[in-house]
Amino acid sequence: MDTSPEMVAAARERGIDASVRDLREWKPKPDTDVVVSNAALHWVPEHADLLVRWAGQLPDRSWIAVQIPGNFETPSHAAVRAVARREHYAKTLKDIPFRVGAVVQPPAHYANLLMDAGCRVDAWETTYLHQLTGEHPVLEWITGTALVPVRERLDDAGWEQFREELIPLLDDAYPTRADGTTIFPFRRVFIVAEVGGAAG
């Protein structure tokens, strides 16, 4: 499931039974074996509670496996928020729920919650150093992630202007190396939990 009709359509083209749904409304079926979430839970403010709820609803010996990007404190997100606050965008973008601060917790936080829920847990985090290439590569990277709600609110001219104002902030925060690459750190938290595994 996904909240993006485009993502769901792409999945269906590959033979996947996908639907447009809100994760918060989903409930595991009694015969669910595995729940996998990839780069979705960081958009759900109460995602830690959601994981615990799933653990309580899933049958013993089922699994939860999630990957959660945790980058709201990074310069790229700070730059987007800074431009969005400028006077000529503030009214149009004021109700976008930009996430601020430590939205995604350290792995131990999730491990403790799920262990208290009776799970056997393996949790860790990795910061990948993506080596991007091209002109303004960080802008291109976040266009498909952090900038999606901004693009949805702005007309074509406003969108191009927003990008132009964002470019110097991103280029300053993520300078291009002499070899033409730009290093872009990207943090991800991974959690694998066996439901009921703590007792076994």
UniProtKB/TrEMBL annotation:
Single Gene Ontology BP annotation: methylation
MF GO annotations: trans-aconitate 2-methyltransferase activity
According to the entry, every stretch annotated as the Methyltransferase type domain falls at 1-56
What is the top-level taxon of the source organism? Bacteria
Going by the UniProt record, its keywords in alphabetical order are:
Methyltransferase, Transferase
Which is one Pfam family of this protein?
Methyltransf_11
Write down what this protein is called.
Putative trans-aconitate 2-methyltransferase
Organism annotation: Mycobacterium stomatepiae
Gene for this chain = tam
